[in-house]
Amino acid sequence: MVFVNLPVSDVDAAKAFYAGLGWQLNEQFSDEGTASFVVSETITAMLLSRERFAGFLPEGAEVGDPARQVSVMTALSADSREECDDLLARAVAHGGQQFAQPQDHGFMYGTSFADPSGNVWEAVWMDPSALAG
Predict the structure, then answer these.
(1) What pTM does this model have?
(2) 9 burial level (CB within 10 Å; 0-12, 13-18, 19+)
């Protein structure tokens, strides 16, 4: 399992955004400072208020601001180019922003977006026949 822990500036806005992507809220691990979203069977996005996120850091460490500096881009595998485009469209429709222009390398295609707090996600499709050889 992979748990992606992300600081967010507004937990309620994050809940609306990630629900808009079609990801499932896990109420059991959500509260006023945290929203847990199931991305896939093996991936969960933990969206934490900046204060809650800071509680997991050692003394002296600071919570970064993803709206100002990109320190991680979480890439998700997609089954098709269309799935990449669809996730980007849902992100933009629910308050996110396109992060960069789509990347088309023929055998590989990807889109990227930032959530309302600035956390960056990518959707990437690769031609299975290109992987085999």
Answers:
(1) 0.92
(2) middle
Which two three-digit tokens encode residue 24?
A: 């499932």
Judge whether 111 and 121 are in contact, CB under 8 Å. Answer: no
Q: 25-54 burial, b if ≥16 CB within 10 A, otherwise e? A: eeeeebeeebbbbebeeeebbbbbbbebbe
CA atoms within 13 A on the CB side of 68: 4
* pLDDT one-digit tens code per residue, 33-86: 999 999 999 999 999 999 999 999 999 999 999 999 999 999 999 999 999 999
Contact 33, 99 (CB under 8 A): no
Determine the residue type at 114.
Answer: A
